[in-house]
Amino acid sequence: MTDGEDAAGPDLPERRRGSGVRVVHESLRDEILDLTLPPGSPIDEVELAERFGMSRTPIREALIRLAGEGLVETLPNRSAMVARIDFLNLHHFFDAITLMYRLTNRLAAMNRSDAALARIRAAQADYAAAVAAQDALTMIAANRSFHAAIAEAGGNPYYTQFFLRVLDEGRRLLRLYYQSFDDRLPQEYVGEHDAIIAAIAAGDVEESDRLGRAHADQIVRQIRALLARERRDDPPL
Amino acid sequence: MTDGEDAAGPDLPERRRGSGVRVVHESLRDEILDLTLPPGSPIDEVELAERFGMSRTPIREALIRLAGEGLVETLPNRSAMVARIDFLNLHHFFDAITLMYRLTNRLAAMNRSDAALARIRAAQADYAAAVAAQDALTMIAANRSFHAAIAEAGGNPYYTQFFLRVLDEGRRLLRLYYQSFDDRLPQEYVGEHDAIIAAIAAGDVEESDRLGRAHADQIVRQIRALLARERRDDPPL
DNA sequence: TGTATTTTATTTGTCGACAAGAAAATCGCC
DNA sequence: GGCGATTTTCTTGTCGACAAATAAAATACA
């Protein structure tokens, strides 16, 4: 046995030099997007260092990266915190994601390739499977992958990167939404996604645009309804 | 005298705790955007630490932030380098900046306020002064501030942030462009900017859009011409 | 002489420690 | 008892050092 180290700690695997930051970044990122770490909650560097079994340095670098992605807020000489969701300015988010749905769909319909279409369909298969299994977290992640694949098919890395950022913001809102329904998932989106794939595969730019807008409207309407309901019950977060 | 420290080093001012990262970040950022640090050049952490009179830790954090902004590329266990300019895929950049010129102009025309208009006009005054003084670096920075102010007037922070990123990429290309003309600056853009201000102030959305597109086309045409010329002479960078 | 291999040197990634700053707790005073 | 000043505790920002990984140089060999 090689793991005869500290009696208390769960033996953490030897990691390759340089991989620490990546692990922490991805772990925290997922936890933030899944709302495992609630918006506004403080982030203690020492606590994370102990949890991941490394010093504060790589933790710190991961936090800086997350701050650059807008997932973490930092104040000088104060604890960092999980980025809050600005419920008062959600309409800006809705504007942006609607535009990007339309734009990425349009570009994908123009520039699609067989390989890109295959990736889109693969993501959609994951998505459908997650919905069938009523697995909200997997579904939300697959939804992001689906739209990310469409953006990739469009070919413009500037748009793709921006869209990913907006989609991640949306992941937190979607999680909030499905939490409020005990994570029961509707089938209807699977059909909408299939329609988008068909339009892109056919190279129908205008139809892809129209479906992108409809998809965005659908999501915006739901989240708005959720917020209105929450506001009646108790203040959000 | 309090500065009786190292005989060699230019005495570096005492800095407040936490300000180190900001100083390094802003300094390097400006040097990268002004092409003082040429694309692709390696970045030595120790060298920077000596230059800024601090340890490697804050240097490193600044580099991570710059990498998040796409201004620095990092390879594992290898020196970081100033982000290269991908000349083969410039059309994606041109697409993105054209869209954002139009979009920010439109939104500014819709949502303008007196305060925002004042900021736009102030940036334009700086721009005109720099052109009159034939100061290329100041002009390029002021051009960025001008369009950033328009984006701010539009009110959507998602668009503003994305636009800033694209504009920064453009700053490097503009610098390249004016370097090739020995930094002699044309007057024509001052007029174009004035026209954009007028359209926004009048709330004329379609005209703002049209001017944004024309402005983008102008810049795209120039940079394309520069690249075609460079390609004839010698390979770019 | 050219190529493969070992050795050296340079540069990064990580660590533990210390000090500055802020929040919390304690104390003194009215 | 309430409020302000002081002390304490806690967390971050910075540092110097060490080890791993890579690049460069030197060496061995065909």
TrEMBL record, chains A, B:
Q: Where is this region: Disordered?
A: 1-20
As one GO molecular function, the record gives:
DNA-binding transcription factor activity
* Highest rank taxon of the organism: Bacteria
- UniProt keyword annotations, A-Z: DNA-binding, Transcription, Transcription regulation
Which CDD domains does the entry link to?
WHTH_GntR
Record flagged with keyword Transcription? yes
Q: Which InterPro entries match?
A: GntR_C, TF_FadR/GntR_C, Tscrpt_reg_HTH_GntR, WH-like_DNA-bd_sf, WH_DNA-bd_sf
Record domain HTH gntR-type: where = 18-85
Q: What is this protein called?
A: AsnC family transcriptional regulator
| Organism of provenance | Paracoccus sphaerophysae
